[in-house]
Amino acid sequence: MKKKIVFGSGGAIVALCGLAFTLVATAGVPEPVDTSKRGTQEYYTSDVLTQDLPEILTNLRGTGGKYIQIIATVEYRIGPELEPSEISGLFSARSAKLKDGFMMLLSEKTMSDVESREQKEILKEEVKSLIQKIVFPDKRGMVEAILFRDFKVQ
Amino acid sequence: MKLAALVMGLAMAAGSVGVLASLPQRAAWSTAHTERMRGTNAYYDARETGTFIGPLSLRLNGEPEVYLVIAYTFTWRRGYELRDPDDLIQANRSRLVDALLSRLPELSAKELGTRQGKLALKRFLSRVTQEQIFPQGEGRVQKIWLDRVLLQPTRMG
Prior knowledge:
The structure holds two protein chains of two kinds.
Chain A: H1 2-26, E1 49-52, E2 56-59, E3 67-78, H2 84-87, H3 89-92, H4 95-106, H5 112-115, H6 117-135, E4 141-153
Antiparallel strand pairs in A: 1-3, 2-3, 3-4
Chain B: H1 2-22, H2 31-37, E1 49-59, E2 67-78, H3 85-103, H4 109-112, H5 115-133, E3 139-152
Antiparallel strand pairs in B: 1-2, 2-3
């Protein structure tokens, strides 16, 4: 009789512990994210975020002392896997790499490559791809557009 | 009584797992092992740190009227025996600047204006930075990120 009570109460305690562990372990766990949807429009939030890019200042190819100065903003959207605390550091942590990338990209451009409206649109697309590759290589965010705020060749 | 002992045993086991998990990933190396590992990839920490250099302004030798403004970030990995990397970098920074001011004027403005020239410049900066900042291989320079490479007809600031 005594043994039955001991085993019975032991089983009840183990069952309660199991239940408590399950409740604690699953509390606050977000719904699993379907990572296969990364890169598709529906994966990203509808809110468009903006970030000022580091100033781009470098020589164009074959222009001697002339240089190009671009100040731009990037518009982007993020996916559900990015924590709000990660967002602020997304660009600042990659600032050196971004500047380097812009410089290498513009080193191949001549004056005629950046003069016309069409050429500027092409340049925007190239900058967009570059940022996507550097900041969101895993497609956890998506670059939407590049907006020039200043564009000078001097 | 048995139940209490069981619960206590489980708690101690869980505590031990926690303690083991929090121990450093790499145990201390013996002198012989350190000697063997020196210079190998595993000798250097996996984490990369960035250090900014510049901007430096100088005149190129070949083109009397062309000035170069240059700034860059180098990323580096700490060697196993390097205890205070910030002190070492600070101590050797002036040697690096001196070497750059002596050797950069030999570069050609025409080459620096192209992508290929900039890639060559990165290799050059990587080599000189490694030689001057970590002369004994105390750390390893990994990458060079160009911040500014600007050729202009007159000196800036």
